[in-house]
Amino acid sequence: LNAKVANFGLSKPFGDTEKGYVTTQVKGTMGYLDPEYFMTNQLTEKSDVFSFGVVMLEMVSARRPIHQGKYIVKEIKAVMDKAKDLYGLHEIMDPVLLQSATTLVGLEMFVDLALKCVNEAGNNRPAMGEVVKEIEEIIKLAGVNPNAESATQSESYEGGQLRHPYTDDSLSHYSRVVQVSTA
Where are the transmembrane segments (predicted)? Predict the structure, then answer.
């Protein structure tokens, strides 16, 4: 599966490029919306950084941004204790991550970066270029070849059938949409 992350900020035509943001009605998926965008209707490139930070937290927890009525950002901040191993996030973490010691190298740095991305104030969030550089450093620290194709999957299997990680539906009915390439 090849994931694609698009720039939501560029999905709308730029109105006033001098201001550096687009003013419009608030639209987007709850859980991913930048709080500043929600409050001001001003969409900036830092809005995309916020949304990407939420995606990063999803990767760590294997949970939707709003899981059982709880917002993933607030839940992770409430449980997190930097003095503990893996910041004390064991109960929130994706069980697949916990099973593999090699994937945990750099995890705390990854969580720190994600939390920088979801900072309430947009001007305190890193630029996306900085995020990319930090992720590259984390990958190097973990000793992972960034050019290697991924051989891991986080989907769950029941009875030999691939299940969607959020809905627990069989993925067989998605087969027309999702193309899995094998090399």
Answer: none
Give residue 70's Cα distance to chain centre: 16
pLDDT in tens, 108-151: 899 999 999 999 999 999 999 999 999 999 988 877 766 666 54
Contact indicator for 67, 100 with CB cutoff of 8 Å: no
* 161 DSSP β-pair partners: 158
- Asked whether the beta carbons of 128 and 49 are under 8 A apart, the reply is yes
Q: Which domains does the chain have, with CATH numbers?
A: 8-151 (1.10.510.10), 153-183 (no CATH)
- Cα gap 32→10, rounded to integer Å: 16
pLDDT band at 157 (very low <50, low <70, confident <90, very high): very low
CA 53 to centroid of chain Cα atoms: 5
**Cβ–Cβ < 8 Å for 11, 94:** no
pTM: 0.66
The angle at the Cα of 171, spanning 166 to 174, to the nearest 5 degrees, equals 110
pLDDT in tens, 67-95: 888 898 999 988 888 888 888 888 888 88
